[in-house]
Amino acid sequence: MASKLVLNRLRSLCRVSQLSDVRFDKLRDPVSIFSTSQNQVTWRSYSEASQPTPINPPPPPPPSPNTSTTTSSSLNEFELAKFSAIAETWWDAEGPFKPLHLMNPTRLAFIRSTLCRHFRKDPNCTRPFEGLKFVDVGCGGGILSEPLARMGATVTGVDAVDKNIKIARLHADLDPQTSSIEYRCTTAESLVEEQRQFDAVIALEVIEHVADPAGFCKSLSALTIPGGATVISTINRSMRAYATAIVAAEYLLHWLPKGTHQWSSFLTPEELVLILQRASISVQEMAGFVYNPLTGRWSLSDDISVNFIAFGTKSAKKDETLD
Ligand SMILES: C[S@@+](CC[C@H](N)C(=O)[O-])C[C@H]1O[C@@H](n2cnc3c(N)ncnc32)[C@H](O)[C@@H]1O
């Protein structure tokens, strides 16, 4: 009875807060409902996607008075030390980055489908991203940068850990198709200072390791050309994510070193949509990654309760994030 009352209260909160067009089953974390109650949060599920992305999404809400347009440092030294300690293992498909290697085809499928639709490219050709400039922020050893380059994109990969960049460079140089990747040991905010911009800005599994997620999103937005795209993946701050991405993956299955993830650093999908919206990126589509223990494969799903990926676009109008 009590739980029914709570459920009804949450449903009414959704209505009051203009969240009624968000499917209720997406709002798994009550905290996020309370913290987003003044804002409209909408996106399209992966399975609902069939139409091209509108190039001019609705304008974002005005920034709150205490929101600075300058970006703070995204560096979290404690997190970076963890990646530095295992940098040599980036290309060991059975090592600590095994989950990312296994997820790679699935996340590339999402990137290929959303970015081809957005940039009006043929997803069935071998080099659909020919002519587009991408930046892979927090690229690690380059396991995403390389396939993006093979798909024709002009890729810049940046990471705050120098060892990662050295490994990425060495590996990319083994193949003429990837040797053109520009790898730099730097941050998104430093690239903003250099006034670099890209057609697509991609940051997969990085935001949960940065010091200031909102500032990080502003940097990603500033790096995105007007009318360009931003893709972010991360882990939901849900109880299910705690059980699977931390307890199971780190402590029971030993897929990841213990302490890789801090549950409190995860963002809910609603929070990510909001901080992107405040950074002038409008999330158009979201998908979950689900793992099938029988096949050992990941697939795309509407279930965003643990791992999820978001594709957003920046208004084609004047670049407000560089002001
Ligand atoms: C979990 S790994 C993800 C690597 C890659 N994006 C992927 O999905 O294959 C996170 C990466 O982000 C990098 N990183 C963390 N904070 C960063 C920051 N503030 N700026 C740039 N890179 C950062 C780490 O060094 C690490 O290589």
From TrEMBL:
SUPFAM superfamilies for this protein: S-adenosyl-L-methionine-dependent methyltransferases (SSF53335)
Pathways involved: Cofactor biosynthesis; ubiquinone biosynthesis
Comp. bias intervals (Pro residues): 54-65
Catalytic activity: a 3-demethylubiquinol + S-adenosyl-L-methionine = a ubiquinol + S-adenosyl-L-homocysteine + H(+); a 3,4-dihydroxy-5-(all-trans-polyprenyl)benzoate + S-adenosyl-L-methionine = a 4-hydroxy-3-methoxy-5-(all-trans-polyprenyl)benzoate + S-adenosyl-L-homocysteine + H(+); a 3-demethylubiquinone + S-adenosyl-L-methionine = a ubiquinone + S-adenosyl-L-homocysteine
Subcellular location: Mitochondrion inner membrane
Binding-site list for Mg(2+): 205, 208-209
GO annotation, cellular component aspect: extrinsic component of mitochondrial inner membrane; mitochondrion
Listed cofactors: Mg(2+)
Xref: InterPro entries: SAM-dependent_MTases_sf, UbiG_MeTrfase
Region described as Disordered: 45-73
Topology versus the membrane: Peripheral membrane protein
Residues involved in S-adenosyl-L-methionine binding: 107, 138, 159, 204
EC number(s) per entry: 2.1.1.64, 2.1.1.-, 2.1.1.114
MF (Gene Ontology): 3-demethylubiquinol 3-O-methyltransferase activity; 3-demethylubiquinone 3-O-methyltransferase activity; metal ion binding; polyprenyldihydroxybenzoate methyltransferase activity
GO BP field: methylation; ubiquinone biosynthetic process
Gene3D superfamilies (alphabetical): Vaccinia Virus protein VP39
Keywords: Magnesium, Membrane, Metal-binding, Methyltransferase, Mitochondrion, Mitochondrion inner membrane, S-adenosyl-L-methionine, Transferase, Ubiquinone biosynthesis
Keyword presence, Cell membrane: no
Described purpose of this protein according to its UniProt entry: O-methyltransferase required for two non-consecutive steps during ubiquinone biosynthesis. Catalyzes the 2 O-methylation of 3,4-dihydroxy-5-(all-trans-polyprenyl)benzoic acid into 4-hydroxy-3-methoxy-5-(all-trans-polyprenyl)benzoic acid. Also catalyzes the last step of ubiquinone biosynthesis by mediating methylation of 3-demethylubiquinone into ubiquinone. Also able to mediate the methylation of 3-demethylubiquinol into ubiquinol.
NCBIfam families registered for this protein in UniProt: UbiG
Stated family: Belongs to the class I-like SAM-binding methyltransferase superfamily. UbiG/COQ3 family.
Complex and partners: Component of a multi-subunit COQ enzyme complex.
Protein name (Swiss-Prot/TrEMBL): Ubiquinone biosynthesis O-methyltransferase, mitochondrial
Taxon lineage: Eukaryota, Viridiplantae, Streptophyta, Embryophyta, Tracheophyta
This protein's encoding gene: COQ3
